[in-house]
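Box 3.1 A note on notation
Throughout this textbook, protein chains are presented in two layers. The first layer is the amino acid sequence; the second is a token string describing backbone geometry. Keep the layers aligned when reading.
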Amino acid sequence: MSAVQSEVQSDLISTYYDTPDLALNRKQLTLRVRKQGRKFVQAVKAGDSAGSDLLVRREWEDPIASKRPNIDAPKTGKQLPASIRKQDLRPVFTTSITRTAIKVEPHSSTQIEAAIDEGEIRTANGSGVEPISEIELELKSGNPAVLFDVALRLLEAAPVRIETRSKAERGYRLLGAASLPQALHAGPVALYPAMAVEAALQRFGRQCLTHLLRNEPVALAGESEGIHQMRVAVRRLRSVLSALKPMLPQEHYRWASEELKWLTHVLGPTRNWDIFAASLAAPVSDALSANRELEYLVRAVERRRHAVFDDAKQAILSEGYAKSILCLLRWFEAYGWREQPVSEQAALLLAPIANLAPELIDRCYRRARKRSKRFAEQTPTQRHRLRIALKKLRYIIEFLESLFDENQVRTFVNRLQLLQDCLGHANDVRVAYDLVDELLGETDHDVRAIDRAGGIMLGWHERGIADHEPKLRQHVRRFKHLNPFW
């Protein structure tokens, strides 16, 4: 059980400064002066990024004489752009919080500091206020798994969620300086040849979960691309775990796979209905604007799309979702896969990633080539399996591409992407048949009109697929003749 070693309460007032045109914010810098008692501390932070770690922040601090910024401070001053002048800086927002710092010792070898912040963010012009109620857990020493165990205990006691936005981000959003949250795409994974396989896996796991979490606010703001990027993060992680499955404990792999499948199930329907609305129904409706039955279909699709989007947002806000993410983070941070007997396969996790990278890619490549055989005779189901194999190949390449020649990788991936996109459209049409049936099963009125409109729409796209068949076969042939870069 956790033992509380000490508890200290303090009032913190932090004023954030910027120029009238918010030059620091544009450069992803924040300048903060915090008053604690009679002391003032100036901090400069570099902007957050979704790198290999959950949150990547760089921070510098200096004690200063007053609440006004000191651009000549030795550590923080040199981080500010040379064009910034002291007279240009003015307060933009303030955080006023009461912080309760608690030192916790769950085990004799583990120390955690919990900072409980309660207060508010208030813009300098008084235009906006937002409450702050959060707990920050910092591992001072010991096993990182215990940190997540404490977070999971908190989740049992209260409906907590993981917050990835800094107070500065929320302040600028409150100020109106930032537009609506923008979807964040996955960045490159920086690996080096001597890195152990398990270290590479941990880095990729962190990046994927960061990608997922950083797109949460976008999804909750109503942007469907946020849902799509969350889904991409989950699928990328599933693909890499699948490639490394022989090295992982069977029960661990099964558990992680089920957690990720649940997330896919939560996020998948929204993407399917977005594609149906934007890429399938809308083009046909625009081309045949005089057809009123297509209008019924479009309206029914929009109703269903909004309903599944609401379902996805509720799932993201659920306790089950928070628990799933915390457990996955715990597994990656604590190298959970080490809990297995010594074996030849398990030992591969300690091998240099460069030694295994060619084999990992080649295995996926051979599977995709096998799926592409006799393509002209394949059924839609077989072509769907090829598409999945190609997607897994691309994701494993994205995982390992930093170990290979960049130009050769790009050439290969660009060709791969063309084929994948073509097969993706055909699969979207295949899925649309099920979505039309779903609409018909849930609609009490206009059933015949929607049924006819669905037939028109599907027929339109089937004709397009048939017309594009020669080009698609050409993409398959070109894929088969690609030169492996590994």
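The chain has two domains: 3-178, 224-480. DSSP finds 14 helices and seven strands in the chain.
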